[in-house]
Structures are given as C-alpha cells and as structure tokens.
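ok new one. same drill as before - structure tokens go in, u give me an amino acid for every spot. 107 of them this time. try not to just spam alanines like last time pls lmao
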C-alpha cells in the first residue's frame, strides 16, 4: 500500500542518513516496526536488510551497538523469514566478534 511504501522510504532515509543520531533513530524505528508491523518487515525483509546490514557495520559504535541489540530481538520474531539475508547478516555480525569495544562484542 501507499502507507507501507512511505514507511519503508522513511526507514531507508533514516538508516542511510549522514548524521549518526538520525541513523540511530532509524534503527529504533525498525524495532518499532518489528513490534507493530511484523508483516511489513517480513514481506520486505531483503529491501530492509540491504540498508540495515550497513548499520551493523556502522562507523559509529553507538549505532552499531544498537543495531546489534535490535538484531538480537528480531531473530526470534522473524526466524525463517531471515533466510534470504542470512549470508549478509552472518558476515556483518562476524566482523563485530573481533571488536575491541566490549559493548559491541557483547551485543
């Protein structure tokens, strides 16, 4: 629907913004959508994760940490729906296992 398209466009804009605070808002908005509109997320999982994976590799450690926390909450909700994006997720998460920042490594 038009509303869903607008929601996805807004989410994409926030997740790809230059300012880290705006990217952080995008990660939080994704979590909100996961809770309020799980069908929207699962239907558009590939499109959403193309930009969300970038936040798992973000240069700002706060954004990266929040994205990892959100991902941990998303996995039980979407389980099998994540199958099309597993390779990119695994690569992004694996990179964070070598992090020198305890918060990122823990997340």
């Amino acid at each position: 629907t038009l509303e869903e398209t607008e929601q996805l466009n807004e989410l994409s804009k926030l997740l790809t913004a230059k300012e880290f605070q705006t990217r952080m808002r995008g990660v939080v908005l994704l979590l909100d959508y996961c809770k309020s509109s799980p069908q929207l997320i699962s239907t558009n999982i590939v499109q959403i994760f193309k930009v969300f994976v970038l936040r798992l590799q973000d240069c700002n450690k706060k954004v990266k940490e929040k994205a990892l926390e959100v991902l941990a909450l998303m996995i039980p909700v979407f389980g099998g729906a994540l199958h099309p994006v597993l390779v990119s997720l695994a690569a992004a998460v694996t990179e964070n296992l070598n992090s020198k920042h305890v918060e990122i490594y823990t997340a």
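The helical segments are 2-15, 20-36, 38-43, 45-56, 61-78, 86-96, 102-106. and btw The mean pLDDT is 90.
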